[in-house]
Design a protein that fits this description.
The chain is α/β, with parallel strands linked by helices and about 220 residues long. The protein has a single domain, classed as Rossmann fold (3-Layer(aba) Sandwich). The protein is about 55% helix and about 10% strand. It is built from 11 helices and 5 strands; from the N terminus they run αβαβααααβαβαααβα. The chain has a 5-stranded parallel sheet, sandwiched between helices. The two termini are about 20 Å apart. InterPro entries: P-loop_NTPase.
């Protein structure tokens, strides 16, 4: 058997990227493709929420901010969707570097599929040898509303606030603004965008994404 060696830069060069918006089915599509082709899937949202907390705290301390998380009311109620979107977009570059560290730590002789809303087109583009290694999924407004009404994790905040209705409205409006930014940045970098409207199931969307990735998906 030939000796296997780990090359972190090769890992990144072989990664296939699914970015875009919340509630567009990115995780589901990545799981389907990974299962079909025997690949490793990296779920940005999962690792960012669970694996990067120490880095998040250290960064806040370095910036002179309180190490504790802001209160739910501060994050979701006492602000505006525009301010929330701006803060989210400002934080993505730092969080992207943490995701790259995770990906460099993976070894696979096959491509890795990385998905998540923090995998922004403008951040991923410098790593691509071709725009076909990335795709951006965004929901239409009708499909976003469908997801919000049918997915428990989308319909509920998961955190208690003094004004749940306002918190949810702010979150939805923020997500819409962040999605619109993803589409603009994808178009600027020549990266394909698929609008998910609910007329096709996740397997059919995975078919289209797989066709887009083409031979790169096969390693």
């Amino acid at each position: 058997m030939p000796e296997q060696t780990w090359n972190p830069f090769e890992t990144l060069s072989r990664t296939l990227w699914i970015g875009g918006a919340q509630w567009a089915g990115k995780s589901t599509v990545a799981r389907i493709l990974a299962h079909r082709h025997g690949l490793t899937a990296y779920h940005y949202d999962y690792h960012d929420a669970r694996g990067h907390q120490d880095r998040r705290i250290a960064r806040r301390v370095a910036l002179g901010e309180p190490p504790e998380n802001p209160t739910p009311d501060t994050v979701w109620v006492g602000t505006t969707p525009e301010a929330m979107a701006a803060a989210t977009l400002d934080g993505f570059p730092v969080r992207f570097e943490w995701a790259l560290d995770d990906l460099r730590g993976l070894y696979s002789p096959r491509p890795i599929i990385a998905e998540g809303w923090g995998l922004r087109p403008e951040l991923v583009a410098p790593l691509l040898d071709t725009p076909r290694r990335m795709i951006v999924l965004v929901p239409t407004e009708n499909f976003r509303q469908h997801q919000l009404s049918t997915l428990p994790r989308a319909a509920a905040m998961g955190q208690s606030t003094s004004d749940p209705a306002r918190a949810q409205a702010n979150r939805i409006a923020r997500d819409r603004l962040v999605a619109e930014d993803a589409v603009r940045k994808a178009e600027e970098h020549g990266i394909r965008v698929i609008e998910v409207d609910g007329s096709r199931d996740a397997a059919a969307i995975a078919d289209e994404v797989g066709e887009h990735f083409g031979e790169a998906l096969l390693g």
